Automatic annotation (TrEMBL), chain A:
Record field: transmembrane: 12-32, 39-60, 66-86, 156-177, 209-229, 235-253, 260-277, 297-314
Bilayer topology term: Multi-pass membrane protein
Localization in the cell: Cell membrane
InterPro entries, alphabetized: ABC_transp_permease (IPR001851), LivM-like (IPR043428)
Pfam family, any one: BPD_transp_2
Protein name: Amino acid/amide ABC transporter membrane protein 2, HAAT family
Gene Ontology CC annotations of this record: plasma membrane
Keyword Transmembrane helix part of the UniProt annotation: yes
Molecular-function annotations in GO: branched-chain amino acid transmembrane transporter activity
UniProtKB/TrEMBL annotation, chain B:
Taxonomic lineage: Bacteria, Bacillati, Actinomycetota, Actinomycetes, Pseudonocardiales
Subcellular location: Cell membrane
Annotated keywords: Amino-acid transport, Cell inner membrane, Cell membrane, Membrane, Signal, Transmembrane, Transmembrane helix, Transport
Residues spanning the signal sequence: 1-16
The keyword Cell inner membrane appears for this protein: yes
GO BP, sorted A to Z: D-alanine transmembrane transport; L-alanine transport; L-isoleucine import across plasma membrane
Annotated TM spans: 147-166, 197-218, 230-252, 280-297, 326-346, 405-424
Record-linked Pfam families: BPD_transp_2, CarboxypepD_reg
Family, similarity comment: Belongs to the binding-protein-dependent transport system permease family. LivHM subfamily.
Membrane-topology annotation of the record: Multi-pass membrane protein
The protein, known as: Branched-chain amino acid transport system permease protein
UniProtKB/TrEMBL annotation, chain C:
GO aspect biological process, one term: L-amino acid transport
Protein name: Amino acid/amide ABC transporter ATP-binding protein 1, HAAT family
Family of the protein in this entry: Belongs to the ABC transporter superfamily.
Organism whose genome encodes this protein: Pseudonocardia ammonioxydans
Location of the ABC transporter domain: 63-308
Database matches in Gene3D superfamilies: P-loop containing nucleotide triphosphate hydrolases
Keyword Membrane: no
Lineage of the organism: Bacteria, Bacillati, Actinomycetota, Actinomycetes, Pseudonocardiales
Annotated region described as Disordered, given as residue ranges: 1-42, 334-366
Statement: the UniProt record of this protein carries the keyword Nucleotide-binding: yes
GO molecular function: ATP binding; ATP hydrolysis activity; branched-chain amino acid transmembrane transporter activity
Pfam families found in the cross-reference section: ABC_tran, BCA_ABC_TP_C
Keyword annotations from UniProtKB, A to Z: Amino-acid transport, ATP-binding, Nucleotide-binding, Transport
Family matches, as InterPro entries: AAA+_ATPase (IPR003593), ABC_transporter-like_ATP-bd (IPR003439), ABC_transporter-like_CS (IPR017871), BCA_ABC_TP_C (IPR032823), BCAA_Transport_ATP-bd_LivF (IPR052156), P-loop_NTPase (IPR027417)
Amino acid sequence: MIDFGQLLTVGISQLIGPSAIFFALLALGLNIHFGYTGLLNFGQIGFALVGAYGMGISVANYGAPLWLGVLIGMACGVVMALVLGIPTLRLRADYLAIVTIAASEILRLVTRSTSQTEFTGGTQGLTGFGDSFAALNPFTQPSYTILGLEIRGPDLWAILMGWTVVALCVLLTWLLVRSPWGRVIKAIREDEDAARALGKNVFAYKMQALALGGVFGALGGIVLALATQSLTPDFYSPPQTFFAYAALILGGAGRVLGPVIGAMLFWFLLSVADAFLRQATAGENPLLPFISSQDVGAIRFVLVGLFLGLMMVFRPQGIFGRRREVLGDGR
Amino acid sequence: MIALLGTVMLSGTALAAAPAPTAPAPATASAAPAQEQDGIDVSGTLRNQAGDPLPAVTIVAERDGTPVAEATSQADGRWQLSVPAAGSYTFRLDESTLPPGTEVLQGETTREVSDGSLNTVVFRFGEEVEGSGGAGFVTVLRLLVDGIRFGLVIGISAIGLSLIFGTTGLTNFAHGEMVTIGAVVAWYINVAGGVQLIPATIMAMVVGALLGAANELGIWRRLRRRGAGLIAQLVVSIGLSIALRYLVLIFFGGRSESFTDYTAQTVRDYGPIALTDKDLSAIVIAIVVLVAVALLLQKTRIGKAMRAVADNRDLAASSGINVDRVILFVWMLGGALATLGGVLFALSELSSTVQYEMGFRLLLLMFAGVILGGLGTAYGALLGCLIVGILVQLSTLVLPLDLKYLGGLAVLIVILVFRPQGLLGSRARIG
Amino acid sequence: MAADQSNDAGRADDTDTENTDTAVTRDVAGGEDAPAPAGRTDLRRALAGVPPEPGAAKPDPVLTVDGVTRTFGGLRAVDVAHVEFQRGAITGLIGPNGAGKTTLFNLLTGFDKADSGSWVHEGEPLQSLPPHRVARRGVVRTFQLTKALAGMTVMENMKLGATGQRGESFFGALFTGWGAQEREITERARTLLSRFNLDAKAGDLAGSLSGGQRKLLEMARALMMNPKVVMLDEPMAGVNPALTQSLLGHVKSLRDEGMTVVFVEHDMDVIRDISDWVVVMAQGQVIAEGPPEELSSNQAVVDAYLGAHHDQVLEFDDEGNPVGETAELVAEMEAEEIGADAPAPETPASDASTPDAPTSDEEKRA
């Protein structure tokens, strides 16, 4: 029997949970990259990884205060943008795609490497970086009931802080894209050579955009690590980037709020589908006997992959987008 | 009725991490045949630095300091034990049971055991590979041969990638899945069909060619006709790559599965170099096939047409070449070679096992090689892949074994900084 | 190197050693100064004294090019020994397909890297500058295939052209009040748009404009930069004939405002109508120069267009051209061919021979 009430509750709690925050931040970064500047960053999860580990290592291993750790995490995002951007941003667009996807996988391998265990905690990950964040928590009751949802105190604190960060990133995006700076990066997305012919230093703008979006990604990693109090390398696997892409395209690339709405919606749909599949495949007499419950995690990746491909072909402007600003048209 | 948010969030996180792949530990990692028992299986193969199995060694699994399971390795070095539930365990070698004189690099490891994913524990023996101090001439020579072998395998797999780029402009991120699927098909024919691996591989190559054709006819030709841009095509290939990778996971499973042939082989000495028969065969097969491909490109009509299309599509079309047919052939050739590459990769680098992520991992090195040689050039791809293979193997002189892919990325970044058109590429191409 | 000599009108160009080596088709009738049409300006009088031969020194060159070469896979696409562009003049650049005109444009504006050579604008060498720096120095180009930013409005396109915007830097966008400057730019953009009859379209997406309107927009956008030298790559290609006259008028008005115009064109009528001076290229070299009226009597030009040098693969492909025809006729046939925007049938060399070839490939696939 399918418990639809539970499906809905699961979905609604996912609308505002840390996963939605995480993917909103990743997608906000990708929106700067892909939506506004036309950069193909397929390793956004790598930016999240360096952000989270930059913060985690400096706080847990070196005893840095949390604020410094967060700054270091963000700086790691900038450094990664520089390392990957300098060689590739002068070249055709696919080189950035190749390098970013490679870097995101290799960063994961590095952090989980046994040789780095004392530094990164290996496959076990890091702990003990979030104590001062937890100590700041003003919600001291064990749980709060908000709009019928029961939320634990620490979760409420994490969610509140997470959405504050998202709001700040949205504000920054809005300020930038309506400025002449935003006009230039949109021009670069449309036609690099035209922007060059108009005296714009295309490389510098791409680099700035890559770094900015990378910092958004790094913040995503930082927020998630603090919210879940866990930091393990295998969470940061390359396909996660495509969840963020799916969220971005769902909400509409090249719009300020697109990634946020997309991430919430995406995570809602994904978790409802997930919970449905789990219910449908579990129990004595499963609704879908040909799928094992272990495959559910894999099925969502299949669906996301297909979604991404189909959207690119049939609705490149996103689900809600008008055909006004069609992205990636052959350039 | 009301679900606890925290629980849901946790499950969300855990889910995303569920298909967590294992560390690349080529020469040592392996899985035992799947046996459904109570508890969760953990397995591995003990091999010393030279690749010889270590029998009759005791392995103990501990949870919170209490031993919960124990196993002894068999004649082929394999061991398997079963732990009661998912969680964090420490696995320890009983070093007194080791053959005398065996140096242990890592005899204890702690890891998370989870249900439904591959639980392999790796212990490492032999000379210290991390330090740069002890790298003698023999070690370098051995790594060089390993590198040539690895480079040839990458090269065979990557020719299709490069030719597809050359003829259609598509940067095909799903090429890694062609490698995986090729190897998986060969595995099915070999294990389920009971066909010896060599004919099984040839049959799989036919399937790979058909798969390549299906790719072109079902997706890419239509997209080109629709006028989809190259960036859109690139994103489609990425979506396809994820979808295929996880379809393989669903149907094939997350474990490393072993071929029935050529699993354990002893090492033969060739002067200072020690090679197993399958390693030597991999090198020979790769060279023979590559020479055949070169002859095909150089001597046959279709080969010349392929090079012409890669050089200048419009000119080729206007001089009467049926470009669509040539591209279809390129896809078929690429599919067949990717299959062969997948099988050779499994045999020589993954201890004769097949994994659902093997192609994606190889993809990064294929890109490094293809870009190093010059995107779109067949011979450049080969040269670049050889160099990448050698560099990756030599990098283990200074890098820990599980970081050797880092060398591939480093090569990629360095080449993009200094010679983005690649060794054999021309400047006009990189636009 | 030519920086100090720029104003020396009577300078003999044989100080340039490369020049004598490479200019093989120098057997042009040199002395006859055609009578300038009535009503021409001082400019025409000044140019009248310039000998009509390749590499001739101009009284007041704004751009001086020396020894520029560019090779694509063993093929010399550009090999220009010396050429000067007169300040305030409209200079037409003509030549058969594959003559290297667009490649020369790409080199001069930094969009492609020369193998060797130097070029100087107002005493400043430009050869090592990236394209955006060249543009900021006042040498601004347009493209053969118009690069209107289709997904942005006409007004946004225009505003992009303005230079020195505070809000264009990352921190400037956040922390300076760029609003006042933005209003100023908008005002200037409006004025320019109305001059080009595009004011009604200001809020429309550039992608919705017709081909000719895009050409106009591209030109207007370039003017937002207050350029000194405007380099137009086939401004008339693909333009509705009804718009041609108005486009020509705009090009002339650029000169009247003191700008220097260099443009690539195939249509001989257009060349004769608006250019003050014509530079003819073939096989990457400058083979002739002179006032437009003298072109048809120039043996080098006739040879180039009729394929006298067909031992070189760079020639346009119909070698069976009737030799008896005049150069004009062939040039006009050629112009029609270009109007259809067919990419030049390139040589079967081992790589894409001109930088625009990959672009047009992409556009075809797109």
